[in-house]
Amino acid sequence: MVEEHTQQADPIAFQRGMALVRRRRKYFFATIIGYMPLMWLANKISPTFRSMAIAFGIWVVILFVTALLSALARCPRCGNYFHMHGMSLMYLRRCLHCQLSIKS
Ligand SMILES: [Zn+2]
Fold this sequence. Notes:
Helix content: 40-55%
Structural class: mainly alpha
Strand content: under 5%
Bound molecules: zinc ion
Number of strands: 2
């Protein structure tokens, strides 16, 4: 099942694939971290329930998009989804299929 060396031949494509996985992870984590400053900012600009709810709604949409993008990022070594195995989505530092490290 694990084809360790199928896509190792092209190091440029491999690096590009790895960079994509890392970038999408970064966007996802940045969205999570951005929750507090975003809500703080919304509260500063307009401290009503309505505007807070809108800010929260926008954040949820961004979170959903970044989670989807990161979930669909493929491992450059085994070609499977880097963070998704079956129905489970896990943000480990390794590929859930071939154990390829995020730092590769
Ligand atoms: Zn993999």
